[in-house]
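FIELD: query
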Amino acid sequence: MRIAVLAFCAVLTAGCTNLEAVRSISTELTLASESWETASGELHRSCEREYRLNEQLANCDLDRANAQGLADATEVLRVYFETLAAVAGEEAFTIDPSLSDLSGSVGSINGVNTAQVDAVGGLARLLVDVSLNARREAVLRDLIDNGGGNAQVVVDSLLKDHVAGLMRTRLQTERVQAINFYDDKFASADLPAGTDPQDYCRDRLPRSAPALQFLLVEEFCRHDTLLTEREEAIAAYEASLDDASAALTELRSNSAKLSSADLAQRLYGIGADLRASVRDVEAAFD
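FIELD: result
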């Protein structure tokens, strides 16, 4: 039945087809935000891995707070995108009034600025207060005109420019500590001094080497490979944010003409790119 309805819309009314494009890209953005929530936990996971190696690291409270603030920011984005999809698809939805409370933890993200925190808070308040009494295109325009700017600040400024940098710094710190830790262990196991530990991952130990040396090298290289994969995952994370930003730019620039066939074509194209980049994020942080 749904397929028949969409086909009917495509033949008779451009407006119906193009709101389907808005619904489609909003659904892709919702799925993307869910993948960003998974990525947000890497800040805390990296610290926990380092904690096992670094006696000087007292706790991971800061990175736990960073991860929670990031998770709450992406949850507000997820609800925003989900609401856009519901309105465009004429589907029922409810907004939890406590959503506006999530912006409080965003302020705990290390180095976050007022504009980034205010963008999350403003987006949450808009969702809690959204009016359902107008026609759906009017509601969509309200959500896009009054929420799209804040959503773009969260995507571009908070997640891509700030949080991606935090992730890279966190992983670099973990890598330094891992190299220092295993360097000492390698020396204790009589592996050659002055050798870059990463060289052991590229070369083979002689078969006559003691079993302890093999075990240490295998353990270090497994950790080193994980860090390399996580560093590459940040690039996938940033690519998905770029696609999301492109979608928001199109919606904001065309909120008065959501029935445009050209807009629909561009949104479907961005949606395909976003779907691919989200698959990369999910695979990288699996």
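FIELD: remark
Confidence is low (pLDDT under 50) at residues 1-17.
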